[in-house]
Amino acid sequence: MQQLAGSVWLGRLALLGLCAAYLQGGINKLLDFPGAVAEAAHFGLPWPVAVAALTIVIELGGSAMVLAGRGRAIGSALLAVFTLAASCIANAFWRLPVGQERFMAANAFFEHLGLVGAFLVVARLAWRGERP
């Protein structure tokens, strides 16, 4: 078990899993840029074209940094901040009345906090020169 825990491949697989949603989201937004702009507009964000473009850069660029190991700490920290901001915008459960919609938004919000924590752990390890 100790050998598996120290495996380079297990660490790489974990990083791929952590970045999977961001890779999928960035690629989908890139392939459907008008849809990405519409999503930014739906949330009332200013300059939806710029926000959509920046989102793609952060999701794909941050993931590439994490997966390639070059700038892993910065990429991880960037994805942590992005995830926290996006979750506050898209899953603002505190603005909803008590009920099913609020329950689901709260679940999504706290699940995303777990991703933020995981990215911060990866950033911390990278800053210390350790590998995940």
What does this protein structure show overall?
With 132 residues, the protein is mainly α. Helices cover 80% and strands 0% of the residues. It has six helices and no strands. The model has no long low-confidence stretch (mean pLDDT 95).
Keywords for this entry:
132 residues; mainly alpha; 80% helix; globular
Topology pattern, helix = H, strand = E: HHHHHH
Q: Biggest sheet, open or closed, and with what strands and sense?
A: none
**Number of helices in the DSSP assignment:** 6
Radius of gyration: 16 Å
Helices and strands in order, then pairings?
Blueprint: H1 2-5, H2 8-31, H3 33-42, H4 48-68, H5 72-90, H6 100-127
Helix pairs in contact: 2-3, 2-4, 3-4, 4-5, 5-6
In short:
Helix content is 80%, strand content 0%. The chain is mostly helical.
